[in-house]
Structure formats: C-alpha cells, structure tokens
Amino acid sequence: MIATALLTLACGIIAGQFHHTFGVAPILGAILCAAFFLRPRELFMVGLGGMLVRDLLMGLSLFTLVRFAGIGLVVAAIVALKVRPNLRSLLTGLLVSSPIFHLVLAVGNWATGTCGGWARTPGGLVQSIVSSLPYFQRSFVVDFLFTALFLTAYSAVLSRTLVLRRQEQAG
Asked: What's the CA gap between 130 and 154, in Å, rounded?
C-alpha cells in the first residue's frame, strides 16, 4: 500500500512538471509500466490519484474531470489488454491508450472550452481534435521513449537477478 501511495505521488509530481503546452505527459508510459506490478485496483488508484496530485499542484478546474475520464479509460484499456513486460505488449498498450487519452482530452476541451473557443458544433469538434494532433504526436513519442527506457532497465535488472540466482544455486 505504501508503494502504491508513493507511486501515485511520483506520477502526479512528474505529470505536474510537464505542461500541456509542450504536449508531453509521460504519465501514460508510467501507467503502462506500473501495470506489470500492480493489480487493476491499484493501477486505477495510481492513475487517478496521480492526476489528482497533478491537478492539485497545477490547479483544479472543470478540465480535471476530463483528465480523470481520460485516465480512467486508459487504465481500463491497459487492464483489458493485460499489458506484459515486453516490447510488443507495451507498444500495443501505447497504441491503444494514447489515442484514447488524447481523444478524450480533445472532446473535453471542445465541450468545456478550456483551451480553445471552438464552436459547439460538429465542425468545432473536428477542429478541436485536429488541433490536438501535434500534442498527441509529441506525447506518443515521449511515452514510447519513456516506456522503452523503463523496459530496458527492467530487463537489465531481471537479467542481473537471474544471474545472481544461478550463481547462488551453483555455489
């Protein structure tokens, strides 16, 4: 439970350091990686709790509810996909979760008028979605790099652990 709370705080603080202007939010990569170790309930706590910490640091708004919806759907997708610690599984998780998150943010932005003043018409919705594509691209690349870095570190630690176990068994 303490590890889940610490991971929740870390996700929120890290997400709070990256402003939406840059289109970088490695929280999706962090949630993907956390899926290796956490039960679904804990994963929801980390994702939603991390967003709450982020918004408490940055300021609560109506858009906080939009972010909660996006992260909730992302975690649900990751749980449904049963993401495992291998590149194929992580890429699948990222290819599913990243568009979900950014589509929810774009629709939420259109509905609340938080970041743009698009008309509340089908054309305005399309404009909101199209204008979010550069953020989606940058975020996807950063999430991929973060996830690949984590998978590399995870593999190195796992390999080292296996070597140490074999040495203990042999000696």
From this structure: 36
